[in-house]
Amino acid sequence: MNSTKAANGSIQLHGPRMNLPQLAPEVYKAMIALDRAASKGVDPVLAELVKIRASQLNHCAFCLDMHTKDARAAGEREDRIYLLSAWEEATGYYTEKEQAALALTEAVTVLTDGFVPDEVYARAAEHFEQAELAQLISLILVINAWNRIAVTTRSVPGSYQPGGHR
Length: 166
Hints:
CATH superfamily: AhpD-like
Number of strands: 2
Number of domains: 1
CATH architecture: Up-down Bundle
CATH class: Mainly Alpha
Helix content: 55-70%
Largest sheet: 2 strands, antiparallel
CATH topology: AhpD-like
Shape: globular
Strand order of the largest sheet: 1-2
Distance between the termini: 19 Å
Number of helices: 8
Radius of gyration: 16 Å
């Protein structure tokens, strides 16, 4: 079981709520297929940066565990993983293309204004061809869906190994 500290200082224990792959196998298989389709043609390191950043914003411990491990396996540097939550302040660590992808990830994930700002979309469009941008947007949508599945079902982080499946 996982434990968290409540606002009053007490320790709260919680474990997984359900095994979605077992209880909704067709949905799970469709998500796996959608994930593969959305990842096609996207640089694996950039894909992991996007997945980590969305997972940070969504507070998804399971996906953070998975995608930091996958990022390392894809050759990502530790310092770039550590600084990802402050990527805008970490000048010199991320390329302009990566920064555009991360800005788009944040805009799509948070949707604070109810839409993705034109300047964020235009910035991404400067760095990605139309088809590549469509894949990036698809990747962002899929990781957000995975985050919501894992957070809702309380998937437990820690056991994932790169090269494995969700």
